[in-house]
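Bench log. Compound arrived from synthesis this morning; before running ITC I wanted a structural hypothesis for how nickel (II) ion sits in the protein. Inputs:
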Amino acid sequence: MSNETATSPVTEPILLSAALGSFEALWSPRIVTRVNDYDVRVAKVAGEHVWHVHEDTDEFFLVVDGALDIALRDGEDGGERCVTLERGAVFVVPRGVWHRPRADRGASILLFEPSGTSTVGDAHDEVPGHVDVTTGHALGT
Ligand code: NI
């Protein structure tokens, strides 16, 4: 075992498949590494997350496996739309845009966002019990 903490910049390659294979919890991101003051997080997801907004940061998504739908309230009149991210797709939810990820068939995703960013943002609807309110867990926990 390395004595590096999970959130230190990695000094050896990390397979995303191995990182994703190290935990089972849904909607509960693990921090794979950091880049400056950003986290690279991976998460397993299935079903619906919760409507929320990050007022001060964009949020980057990469679908590693499966497919992810993200509902967005970014219309000029606050109207909703939904984008579907197939495996390999990337997408950025701009700061200030309410969004709700969802994966009916399940997915594995990579997130890139400032360390300390909450999974449920700065404001959110009522958080369902299956959603972990966290700023990310260390890999291996
Ligand atoms: Ni978000």
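What the model suggests: Confidence is low (pLDDT under 50) at residues 1-5. The radius of gyration is 15 Å.
ITC booked for Thursday regardless.
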